[in-house]
Amino acid sequence: MTPLDETPPAQDPQSAAGAVAVVLVVVRLLRKDTVKHAFSGVFGVGVGVAFALFTGSAKGFYLPGMIYGAGLGLAFTLSALVGFPLLGVILGPVFRENMSWRTRNPGRKKAYTKASLAWGIIFLAKYAILFPLYWWGDATQLGWVLIALKLPPMLLAVYFTWVFLAKAPPPIDVIAEYEAEEAERKAAKAKAGTARPGEPQD
Q1: Residues of the chain with pLDDT > 90: what percent?
Q2: Which of 78, 120, 124, 143 keeps 20 to 30 A from 149, CA to CA?
Q3: Chain centroid to CA 58: how far?
């Protein structure tokens, strides 16, 4: 048997992942994507490979993503429990309300709290399934379950977010408010500048 034949099976997924990552970088560079985007995926794969080598098991390749996902679920849950829902922080700028929901829109804060709690529970439930597989299953089982649980929990969380926000009061457009105030200030300044000396101003 040659030395190549004696390569531990656990290294095969690492080699395959590395090869796929290199191919994706080449494709993205040929498509003239930015270097940052081209190498972002490689960094993630590299971290997974490093964990696999460190743990001595192909399952270690999935560990960084699992830790990140469980941490995210914990962050969503804790943020909801302390009254500073993470989903509001993320979606506030998208809806042009920034952080106004915290003090000026209590109904919307309640919706963000419920939605963040839903995200947290769904993520934690997902990884409550995955971590026992990581500890007691094999790499193939873990990989297939990871694929199966990739999209459905996310879609479920998005659905609950839509349900809660659809029933909430509309967002307060603080960007529009700021722009209106700025326009009023400019108009008042322009009016003051064009007023003749000694002429009373409105």
Answers
A1: 51
A2: 78
A3: 26
